[in-house]
Design goal:
By secondary structure, the chain is an alpha/beta fold. The chain has one domain: Metallo-dependent phosphatases (Purple Acid Phosphatase, chain A, domain 2). The protein is 29% helix and 18% strand. The protein is built from eight helices and twelve strands. The strands form three sheets. Strands 3-2-1-11-12 form a five-stranded mixed sheet, with helices on one face. Strands 4-5-9-10 form a four-stranded mixed sheet, with no helix packed on it. Helix 6 packs across helix 8. The relative contact order is 0.18. Bound molecules: manganese (II) ion. The site of manganese (II) ion has 6 residues, from helix 3.
């Protein structure tokens, strides 16, 4: 039995199947961890989502910004954008079943795995974890978002989650703004200021970043301790490299022509599949 964590699929179903072949994935025995953005931008969003639904008992999946965008569009809280490629899901006879399932997916997943470096607690989110959050903060904020997403306020939340502001907890005037900030931290974050203020505009390389703006993982996340290892996707330009021990980036930009990557948690071995065609 092995655990494999895979980066952003974004509709790259062919490469996903190829990668599963490469690791000889057995849904009866192995577990797949997916760090979100299962769909959109790529060619076969419905293929990815339907297949994952069929093996859902063998998967641990967290929500990414594109997965939330699907929910928002499907519930009429947002229009389909020009670059969105998930009409196949919206037109599928299985739409309601798939949406009900996606809505239940969490924003974080934590599990201890026995590795060749001892027992390690892996913590997976889509974009990362704000450096000032403790494990208790993560669980509280992530669970609050899940509750809202599954509850009666769902449509309202999906409409109000868009926007880059407020970008700091002390600027939030109400629950709605706090939920927007937290969903941005967990699903869209890349760069952040040392005081925790989120910047969602700058997407360039680290060395050209505005003064004091840093990748979130360079600010010594409070949640990291001796036995913790963070897993995240979302940031394809990193190409799998954070340069920080115990923090692994899994999105290697398959949808942008690069490759899809899996890491086996038991021995940290990397497997990958190049973009096909
Ligand atoms: Mn993303």
């Amino acid at each position: 039995m092995s655990n494999y964590v895979i980066g952003d699929l974004q509709g790259c179903y062919e490469e996903f199947k190829e990668l599963l072949n490469k690791i000889s994935f057995d849904p009866e025995k192995d577990r797949l961890w997916l760090c979100g953005d299962l769909i959109n931008r790529g060619p076969d969003s419905l293929g990815c989502l339907s297949f994952l639904y069929s093996i859902k008992e063998s998967c641990h999946i967290v929500l990414g910004n594109h997965d939330l965008h699907l929910l928002a569009v499907a519930h009429g809280s947002r229009d389909l954008g020009k670059t969105d490629t998930f009409s196949d899901i919206l037109e599928s006879p299985d739409l309601d079943i798939l949406l009900d399932w996606v809505k239940e997916l969490p924003f974080h997943y934590i599990k201890e795995v026995k590795t060749d470096q001892g027992n390690i607690e892996f913590i997976m989110t889509h974009a990362g974890i704000p450096p000032m959050w403790s494990k208790a903060d993560l669980i509280k904020n992530s669970n609050e978002l899940s509750q809202v997403l599954k509850g009666e306020e769902s449509r309202r939340f999906l409409k109000n989650m868009y926007g880059n502001k407020p970008n700091l907890l002390t600027d939030c005037r109400n629950k709605e703004e706090r939920l927007r900030l937290n969903v941005n931290y967990l699903t869209r974050m890349r760069y952040i200021y040392p005081n925790g203020a989120l910047d969602l505009k700058y997407k360039g390389v680290v060395k050209e970043a505005p003064k004091n703006l840093m990748p979130w993982f360079n600010l010594n996340p409070k949640i990291i301790d001796r036995n913790t290892h963070l897993l995240f996707g979302h940031w394809a330009a990193l190409n799998g490299m954070t340069g920080v021990p115990k923090i692994t980036a899994l999105d290697t930009g398959c949808v942008w022509g690069n490759k899809l990557t899996a890491m086996r948690l038991e021995d940290y071995r990397i497997f990958s599949c190049d973009k096909l065609n």
